[in-house]
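Allow me, if you will, to draw on your knowledge of protein folds for a short while. I have a record of one protein: its chain in single-letter code and its fold written as discrete structure tokens. Kindly check, if you would, that the fold set down in the tokens agrees with what the sequence suggests. Thank you for your consideration; the sequence and its tokens are set out here:
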Amino acid sequence: MNLPKRYTIITVVTVFTVTLFFGCESNFKEVQKINYSEFFPATDADTINIKYTDSGRITGVLKSRKMLDYASVDFPFTEFPKGIDVTLYDKKQKRTFILANYAVSYKETGIIDLQGKVKITSEAGQVLETEQLYFDQKNEWFYTERKFKLTDAKGVSYGQGIDFSKDFKVINSQRVSGEIEADED
């Protein structure tokens, strides 16, 4: 059977187009794979107990059941998906205790994001409870805009928004309610 030249050209063009179409799809998938990067921790540790020191003096103890360190990403951070138990020591070895169900420590900013039933207790007995709290390691300062409950020798107060020093000596709270004894001068 002898087909006219026109049908032969159409057949060749069709075969070429189909080949080109499937070839491009394969290349497109390869290009997508090039731009895809795995997001996984550089370090994965179970049951950690880290002691932080300064000039031979312990400044903090961090315990956690799980630590994921993302040191190789553009904005490095360390994640504690199973919570943390931290004890901070001041220069006179007075302690502040921190419990949280989840935490993320951002290396470049020095900010720690504490989440889920966060509880901070000073050695003097002051207790702050909230659902999310940030800790600025450089300035040793806690802060949140979330609702909180503060219990101390003066009573119990509730509010939304608070910031305070690591040792609870300076406390700035917003929208507070509750019974509190005021110092009279």
User: Anything to note?
Assistant: The longest strand covers residues 57-70. The mean pLDDT is 83. The radius of gyration is 29 Å. Residues 1-36 form one domain.
